[in-house]
Queue: 2 jobs
Job 1
Amino acid sequence: MRFIETWIPATLVSTRDLSPGIREFLIKPDRFDGTAYPVGSHINVSVTIDGQPETRSYSLVGEASPQGYRIAVRRAEDSRGGSRYMWSLQPGARLDITRPASLLAMDWTRDNYCLIAGGIGITPILGAAQALARRGANVSLHYAVRSRTDAAYLDDLNEALGARMVVHAGDEGKRLDLDALFASLPEGTLTLFCGPMGMLDAARHAWIGAGHPLTDLRYETFGSSGTLPTETFRVRLKDAGVELEIPRERSMLDVLNASGFEVISDCKRGECGLCAIDVVAVDGEIDHRDVFFSDHQKESNQKICACVSRARGTITVDTLLRADAV
Ligand code: FES
């Protein structure tokens, strides 16, 4: 079930390769007024995977522009199909997208800001860097990449931040030491983070270890990143006598809804928790890819965010709703 989602027609105006594995897409809605959107905004894009309509969520890059919305898509090796579809598009392609929305609570009143991006996580961070720099805020950015050739938007970041941007390139032996960084930040610093799940876990632990309040670490991650490889798994519906296969290119949420087991959802990015359903048994392992549940809740495996989280093996769930067709 879709919840608060208004789709608008749009055109892919142009594409630009930012690195061998990252392509930028400029998308303009048919009716577009260039209205500013909040920091951390994303749009949903309707994609087609194996002939089936699916939704993918992408952060908007930079601040609002009269040219349209910019997103950047990494061609993921373990793609569930969304990046393959996006990379297949040519300028002029017609798309359905949603209007920008942000779940990132920004506080403009702090004395100090720290921005952290891992890989393609730079996309929402660029707009934050530009907005903070424009306001004259005391801000620094730490951008972790495998190598500089994988980095995107270095020129824009350099223009906004200059020496206040530090690139941590793994192949140059410059690994980002989150413990040391967070220990050096003044009290009351607000940190915005966007990166893969493993890096987020490390950031959360380092942040707490440095004695900062967890509410001062605001983050986003991407639903495609987890601790286990993206692979097919099975979902058994409690008391329904039904077992569903979740292929690697589809989400559990989509398969449940397509099978008549309606699960409400909103962000489809593992952020709002609306799609959480009860887990009754785990024969294998759950890969929690949301940022909604706490570490403790994830360890207990009592609930799973169906939009992004996956599993290895078979899990039994209870959606509390019964399929119309069963
Ligand atoms: S729909 Fe928001 S966490 Fe799944």
Job 2
Amino acid sequence: MSADATLQPLLDALKFSPDNLPLRQHLGGLLRQTGQPQPAEDLYREGLRYHPTDPTLQLGLADAYFALGKTSAAFVVVEELLGQHDDLGPAHLLHARLLHASQQPDAAREAYAQALRLDPGLADTTLANELQANAPRRVPASGPAPGFGEPASPAAPALLGLEKPRITFQDVGGMEAVKEEIRLKIIHPLHFPDLYKAFGKASGGGLLLYGPPGCGKTYLARATAGEVQANFLSVGIAEILDMWLGNSEKNLHQLFELARAQAPCVLFFDEVDALAANRHDLRQSAGRTVINQFLEELDGVSASNEGVLIMAATNAPWHLDPAFRRPGRFDKITLVTPPDEGARASILEILLKGKPLAPDVKPAAVAARTAGLSGADLKAVVDGAVDTRLRLSMRAGRPLPIEQSDLLDAAKLVKPSTKEWFATARNYALYSNEGGLYDEILVYLGVKKPGGL
Ligand SMILES: Nc1ncnc2c1ncn2[C@@H]1O[C@H](COP(=O)(O)OP(=O)(O)OP(=O)(O)O)[C@@H](O)[C@H]1O
Ligand SMILES: [Mg+2]
């Protein structure tokens, strides 16, 4: 072993106690950090004789092999490691690097996505950009974007929820019109890009969902990703702005870059009004530069957004800067109303799944008696019924199943939480309804006939 002299005392110490695992792990890390893969390899191989199944040593060895160009040896070790510890983010990351180095771009992207799912802090912009560069269905970027290739700020990815949702439109009760809208605007362009191009319709732009709280906007966005088997990257705008005052532009750029690297991907901005607050509302406004950066990313100025489905949700679309609604941006905004009867029944079914139920429980009958309640309100109903039964079970000293009357009684106590929202929305729709933007609200409230004037 020929490590540099500064580490010699530690290496000597290890020679005296070769089974000192923490010391060996530490020293291996130091050797790798200081670019000494050969002594690192020796150290890890020796260590594995004492601790043959230690994942840190295995990962270290694979990493040292990789650095030495011993790719197939590295593959063997890392794949064996993943066979035992599928939940090790850094192992998936190394796997991604190996797959990338051996020209297996699809598998590399999948491995990278898995690493980020397990630990968003592992984001590696350089790797992500390289993976993106040879991603299928992507137009090569015309040139490096600002901040391109810079390391991600360490806090940035930690806030990102990257996942591969399992729920699809089937799990979303009702909402047929909104689903159709999403299919037209987002899903078909993804599946038939050539057809859309032939008709001169650019894919891209985003879909803005708005509506009262608790009615499934976030849930629907996640289901959209599941529907097209895409990754789902969910971003809370307020958090981004709070976290990195002054650094938000770069973070926004990196976010879009991450989504592009994960394509197909649904990039979802929750509570987008926090970012896009109207210029007049200075206190809440994120500032012009951030808004401009967001619009630029949305327009795909620095890199194409092909394969990235951009969605956003808000309770207060009237606070959005009108620049957001220009063609190719959030030019279509869609109202997500409280669930109708069918949707309430399926939401109740989902909420009651796995709970002890008496044979008389009929979600459909509860749905018929809970007009106006949101998904979140229905959750309050079920929670109330559970509380009642728990109390009775305690008294009886044995578990008693939930009965229909528990649900109906609980429903009487829950007030529709969407009323207040509609009161506000009605005012905007009546008095600030440029271009019929909020007609859907008036139709829903029965003020206006569908399609009428
Ligand atoms: N149509 C639906 N089908 C099935 N479940 C639903 C539906 N609508 C709402 N839910 C349930 O209600 C919960 C609350 O919905 P969600 O968080 O998506 O509301 P939201 O519109 O994003 O609210 P907010 O504006 O407060 O963010 C969901 O987690 C889901 O379980
Ligand atoms: Mg939400």
